[in-house]
Design goal:
By secondary structure, this protein is an alpha+beta fold. The protein has 5 helices and 3 strands.
Length: 139
Amino acid sequence: MKSSAPSFNAPTQRQLRVGEEIRHALASTFMRGDTHLAELETASITVSEVRISPDLKHATAYVITLGGTDVDAVVDVLNENAGEFRHQVTRQIKHMKFSPKIRFKKDESFDEAQKINNLLRDPRVQRDLAEETGRERDA
């Protein structure tokens, strides 16, 4: 009997490799300033990860700006001009059969990491951890 829960398929080595190539191509495009968009001239954009679909036709690029300022506005501009970035990626990665459609999203992993860090520094958590460590020593 099959479970009705959705299954999570880890990305294949090929997906990881192609995603990393696209991440590198986008990062170099932003670094060189090849965007030619006034809205992005002052933005320092970091591409932290690119996830690509199993058929390699759709890519999601997770981005953040330096200092995390105006990320939503930058993501909007990137998505409005996604075709241009797709063209840039195609010019840099010549061995791909298809050039994936690129969608940009705000990378929230840094925010999540900060929330976890703040939780771990909470005095109540520190107290509980100290108590747990004391019990392990007594055992």
